[in-house]
Amino acid sequence: MAAEPDVLLCDEITSALDAGTAEGIMALLRELRELRELRDDRGLAIVLVSHDLPLVSAHADTVLPLGRPGPEPHGRPGPAAAPVTPVSPVPTVPTVPDRA
User: From residue 88, how far is each of 3, 63, 91, 98 by CA, in Å?
Assistant: First the structure.
């Protein structure tokens, strides 16, 4: 956080935590974002990668589940909420048969 990033990527940040600690981490992330918005106009985008959809949904402006056609609005809408471009599914790469 010392480098003041514009985007903070949190990959499974709460995966091995009990529910109370996970909520505490989410509250800390929200506080970091709010403090950044007060300090400058750049803001802080937080990208959460998680299997815990209920936890993420309770705190995120937008949820983009993988394997679904588009974003789903969840959580509390805020002034930083912006339209999300849907992620296209990753194309599969054809395999080349072995030449025996």
Answer: 31, 15, 8, 30
At residue 74, does pLDDT exceed 60? no
User: SS3 for 59-92, per residue?
Assistant: HCCEECCCCCCCCEECCCCCCCCCCCCCCCCCCC
pLDDT tens-digit series, residues 6-59 = 899 999 999 999 999 999 999 999 998 888 888 877 788 899 999 888 898 888
Residues in contact with 36: Cβ distance below 8 Å, sequence separation at least 6, in sequence order: 4, 42, 43, 44
